[in-house]
Write a structure and sequence with these properties.
Layout: E1 15-17, E2 22-30, E3 36-43, E4 53-59, E5 70-71, E6 80-87, E7 93-99, E8 107-109, E9 112-114, E10 122-128, E11 140-142, H1 148-152, E12 161-171, E13 174-186, E14 189-200, E15 215-217, E16 233-239, E17 245-250, E18 257-261, E19 272-273, E20 291-294, E21 300-304, E22 318-326, E23 329-332, E24 336-339, E25 349-356, E26 359-365, E27 370-374, H2 377-384, E28 397-402, E29 410-413, E30 425-434, E31 442-445, E32 453-458, E33 464-469, E34 474-478, E35 489-497, E36 502-507, E37 510-511, E38 523-524, E39 537-543, E40 546-554, H3 560-569
Antiparallel strand pairs: 1-27, 2-3, 3-4, 4-5, 6-7, 7-10, 8-9, 10-11, 12-13, 13-14, 14-15, 16-17, 17-18, 18-19, 20-21, 21-22, 22-23, 22-24, 25-26, 26-27, 28-40, 29-39, 30-35, 30-40, 31-32, 31-39, 32-33, 33-34, 35-36, 36-37, 36-38
């Protein structure tokens, strides 16, 4: 089989953005003439070390190449961090960033003095009227109202800890910025956080930066919190079609939060974990950036990591949901892999979403390299159309059996499959009804006596899984327990993705994300697993307590959206 084309989801295929060593939050605005201006936080050390500062760079070819960086704040000055750009209606770019105004070199924390000095001081802004080629010599402090959490910190509010990752967004002449306030800080980590927003009604049109007015929201003395834990941070948002606001933010509870405001940010719905649909299944996500973005078509995208971790780890791969708005609420699709790296410990995060000339792009950072990535529009359209698509995918369909051809011990020629080491894929899609879930049943078997090949089998956990072997390396993974019920017809899609080396299951149109049982619903397989071509024939239902109504095999991965569409197409 031919080697599949380059996978643009693979992180190194992206286009690098200039930086020093450390780099974070590569956020882009697109100017009227098509110039991209990217601002980012950088430094010659690692995150939080002295010399951390903020820069800009420009691209005139949609992120493929970039100009030499320009300092917004120099490395020799007090630390400047977490820069966020705002493009005004008349072309000015504001850069907002946390600035260590008084050049304070240590801070008191719950665990003693700490030398990291990049999350307190003032929210400063500078501006550029020449598309980021130069920045104002003057900087202006943006006032942020004191909250109860500020008074609870070790300085009783004399020093306020905060940072921002919420790239400004605009709607109906208003501009919004998301920030995180900190009231607990110790052992190098924030131990208590909550979210606020800044809103300006004149920043987009007022040409005198001293006359721009910012209001701190929500009203009252407390920001947006987590339902259970002490961590609620990195709030970012979008405006809905009626002007309502929607935001997402991270916790340490295994689920992100979301909230709505119907009054311009003054008040918000009570703290609530994010769900795929109103009142539905919770989205799973660790302590990492999870950003919501709005596309020009009025639909939404959500960047997250799709597992129930509670710390900073496991940010590879990146998954994405597509959102549609109904009756003032967002409904989210099942997830797709957006980006991945071959190193499971890679930690890409802090993205931006760019639309330009009908094309879609994401930026991201691994903290030591930042990149731009074009996105396949079919992937996004598949997300946005999941609720209605109901056709069977035909590309790569190499086995399609129904009726007697799905009967016990029926045979069919086994398709030739690609090499997973070369990022090939495999998908098996079937309708099955189990009488019971006794372990050791075989739904389909394409293995040789030596075990080389692949099969779908039931497991000792009361579910089913896939077994893969190239004769040297063996891999297996199973669907979440409780996803199938004896006596009921189920649609099952098993997706083996040779890009990120991930096995996932979609059952009855729902992606298996681990639920309440395990941190990961998807599993990795060895990068050394090669091709799993086994027996010349595959055998249908050689040991199945039940029946198959349809069996399809694809010599490529199916996207989640395609698996959902196959399910909606019916038996």
């Amino acid at each position: 089989m031919d080697t599949p084309p380059a996978d643009i989801r693979y992180l190194p295929t992206g286009w690098a953005i200039p930086k020093e060593q450390y780099c974070d939050q590569p956020y882009v605005v697109v100017c009227r003439d098509g110039t991209w201006v990217c601002v980012l936080t950088t430094g010659r050390g690692v995150e939080g070390e002295p010399g951390q500062h903020v820069i800009s760079t420009t691209s005139r070819d949609q992120g493929r190449t970039w100009s030499a960086p320009v300092d917004i704040e120099p490395a020799a000055g007090p630390e400047a961090s977490w820069v966020m750009p705002l493009l005004t209606d008349y072309g000015r770019i504001y850069a907002f960033y946390v600035y260590n105004t008084h050049n304070q070199r240590t801070v008191i924390s719950e665990s003693g003095p700490i030398k990291r000095v990049d999350s307190f001081g003032d929210l400063m802004c500078k501006w550029s009227d020449d598309q980021g080629q130069s920045w104002s010599a003057e900087r202006i402090a943006v006032p942020i109202r004191e909250f109860a959490c500020d008074r609870r910190n070790v300085y009783q509010g004399r020093v306020r800890f905060f940072w921002g990752v919420g790239k400004p967004w605009t709607d109906r002449g208003q501009a919004f910025i998301g920030l995180s306030k900190v009231h607990g800080f110790g052992y190098g980590f924030f131990t208590g956080t909550e979210g606020i927003f800044l809103r300006s009604d004149n920043a987009l049109t007022e040409r005198d930066p001293h006359q721009v007015v910012w209001q701190t929201l929500p009203d009252g003395d407390v920001g947006l919190l987590s339902p259970l834990g002490p961590i609620a941070e990195e709030h970012n948002g979008v405006a809905l079609s009626d002007g309502s606001l929607y935001c997402t933010y991270r916790t340490i509870d295994g689920w992100p939060c979301h909230a709505y405001s119907r009054d311009g940010g003054h008040t918000w719905t009570p703290p609530e974990y994010m769900t795929y649909s109103p009142g539905g299944r919770r989205v799973r996500h660790p302590r990492a950036a999870n950003f919501v973005k709005k596309a020009a078509n009025g639909k939404y995208l959500y960047w997250f990591h799709n597992h129930g971790g509670k710390w900073y780890d496991d940010r590879n791969p990146v998954w994405v949901l597509g959102g549609v708005e109904r009756d003032g609420l967002l409904h989210w699709s099942q997830p797709e892999v957006l980006l991945y790296d071959d190193d499971p410990r890679a930690r890409m995060s802090y993205p931006d979403f760019i639309e330009d000339q009908g094309k879609y792009y994401f930026t991201e950072t691994r903290k030591d390299i930042a990149r731009v990535h074009p996105v396949d529009p079919e992937l996004l359209e598949g997300l946005w159309n999941q609720e209605t698509a109901a056709t069977v995918a035909s590309k790569g369909l190499v086995v399609d059996l129904a009726g007697d051809a799905c009967g016990p011990n029926a045979k069919a020629p086994a398709p030739r499959l690609g090499d997973f080491e070369k990022r090939a894929g495999l998908a098996v899609d079937c309708w099955v009804r189990f009488r019971d879930l006794t372990a050791g049943q075989v739904l389909v078997d394409a293995r040789r006596p030596s075990g080389k090949g692949w099969a779908l089998v039931t497991t000792s956990d009361g579910t089913f899984g896939v077994v893969l072997s190239d004769g040297r390396t063996r891999a297996s993974w199973d669907a979440d327990p409780g996803t199938v019920t004896p006596g009921k017809w189920h649609h099952v899609a098993v997706i083996v993705d040779g890009g990120p080396k991930i096995i996932s299951f979609v059952v009855d149109g729902v992606f298996c994300d681990g639920g309440e049982v395990r941190q990961f619903g998807w599993g990795r397989f060895s990068p050394h697993l090669r091709e799993v071509n086994g027996d010349e024939h595959l055998t249908v239902a050689p040991r199945l307590h039940g029946e198959l109504a349809r069996l399809r095999v694809y010599n490529r991965l199916l996207r989640t959206a395609e698996a959902v569409s196959n399910y909606r197409a019916g038996r």
